[in-house]
Amino acid sequence: MVSGDKLESLIEPAVNELGYELVDVELTTENQRAVLRVYIDTEGGITLDDCETVSNSLDELLDEHDPIPHSYVLEVSSPGAERPLRKKKDFIYFAGKSIQVKTYMKLDGRKNFKGKLIGLDGDDVIVDTYNDGEVKIPLEKIAKANLLLDF
Fold first, then answer.
1. Among 125, 21, 126, 120, which Cα is nearest to 79's?
2. Per-residue pLDDT at 150 exceeds 80
3. CA-based, 20 to 30 A from 78: which of 25, 56, 108, 137?
4. Percentage of the chain surpassing pLDDT 90?
5. What residues form the membrane-spanning segments (predicted)?
6. Measured between alpha carbons, how far is 79 from 138 in angstroms, rounded to an integer?
7. Rounded to an integer, what distance in angstroms lies between the CA atom of residue 36 and that of residue 8?
8. Which of 26, 47, 77 is the last residue of a domain?
9. Residue 82 located in a structural domain
């Protein structure tokens, strides 16, 4: 199976050229079929027309380069309210928001952290956890990070 990084490097320039930000790319299997999910965003939010525009552009690009050797379904959507945080700029832009972080290995005896995103210090994400104060989490140890809805 093709790597997510290879797909991202192919898809991101096309998405950016259309005026959108590529948030994430997932190639997964659901109900025994391959699904390529592309999450996009823009300052004012994403509409159905935006998704259709990007989908049409990516259909042509993916047909031309054929990075996935088998059939798949292409889905383009907004990242949603609990959008993933993957890039350094995400951890800067969303400072002050509630987030959840899962790490590959235990840090201070745990792998799951919830709290307010303080920001980025070099290659460390700083989270003010609700119970244990601030923690620094190295970017390379983050398996998954996403925004949380505040209630």
1. 21
2. no
3. 137
4. 77
5. none
6. 23
7. 11
8. 77
9. no
- Position 48: which residue type? L
Q: With respect to residue 39, please indicate whether it lies within any of the assigned structural domains.
A: yes
Q: How many domains does the chain have?
A: 2
Q: Which domain holds residue 35?
A: 4-77
Note whether residue 141 is domain-resident: yes
When pLDDT is averaged across residues 68-90 and rounded to a whole number, the result is 92
Helix (H, G, I), strand (E, B) or coil at 45: coil
Query: pLDDT digit string (tens) for 82-131?
Result: 999 999 999 999 999 999 999 999 998 999 999 999 999 999 999 999 88
How would you label 92-130 residue by residue, b for 16+ Cβ within 10 Å and e otherwise?
eebeeebbbbebeeeeeeeeebebbbbebeeebbbbeee
Q: Helical H runs in the chain? A: 4-17, 48-65, 88-93
Tell me what pLDDT residue 70 has.
86
Residue 3 has pLDDT above 70, yes or no: no
